Amino acid sequence: MKIFISWSGDLAKEIAEIFKKWIPGVLQAAKPYYSPDDITKGTRWSTEIAKELDESKVGIICLTKENLQSSWIMFEAGALSKNLEKSKVCPLLFEIEPSDIIGPLIQFQAAKFSKKEMKKVVQMMNNELDSSSLSNDVLDNVFNMWWPKLEDDIKKAIENAKNDDKEDLRSDRDLLEEIVSLTRRLNIDTKRGRKSRPDIHPAAIHDIIKGLEKIVSSKPLIDRELVSELFMDISRPLRHIIGRCSDSLNGSEAEEFIARLETLEFELEKYRDKFKSITRKNSNDKES
């Protein structure tokens, strides 16, 4: 039986790798799959990923703080929901609460990472094995034997991710200044290279968008009106850069970058609508 593991982001990738190795130890007939290459995730999945999605009987979605709004998580969740019953798709929550879940993920029964919840997930997967399923007694013994390793590996992965965040901690304003500066330099390079296409590494564009994603998702956030205004100033030249860098980017990378920008724009638009609604309510309250 094939199990599709969906992930996005460094921490979720490590968690997916841990589950890929751990699940067969408990359920030998299970064959977990995850794509180790985040570049292939996007609106155009590779043939291999599309094939695995179609053939999988269970879907596991690794959710962390950094990927709650990931476009690719949403895409794969949507694909899994079309191919599988809702009961066979399980978002696993790491350091987040069920109330944090948004979008199409809300339709699934999520499970926080704990021994009790993981046992339920394993029992669900075991039920899908049909003739290869383990008896309840055997499953209990095997799960209890393998659980400490899974718990330890996941805790280490989360702790390492927290340490990495501390080492890379910068203020929102520092990030904004760095992003604006880098975007301007890239835009100047593209204008100077009009006759010969600029050679800009995709990682530079990825770093800019990742910085924007950190700012938009950060809590508390600095002046959201300022962030929204600066985002529009940055996204326009950044779209131009992506379009100009056809020699450095393949089609999938360009689509991924544009999709991430559009997701951020959508999130900021939602905030603007909410802010206007609150402003109107306060104004009406004062008048009354």
What do you see in this structure?
The chain is of the alpha/beta class and 288 residues long. The protein folds into 2 domains: 2-165, Toll/interleukin-1 receptor homology (TIR) domain (Rossmann fold), CATH 3.40.50.10140; 172-287. It has helices at 10-26, 47-55, 71-83, 115-127, 136-167, 172-192, 202-217, 224-244, 251-287; strands at 2-6, 31-33, 58-63, 89-93, 111-112. Strand 1, helix 1 and strand 2 form a beta-alpha-beta unit. Helix 1 (10-26) runs antiparallel to helix 5 (136-167) and helix 6 (172-192) packs antiparallel against helix 7 (202-217). The longest helix has 37 residues, at 251-287. The radius of gyration is 22 Å and the shape is elongated.
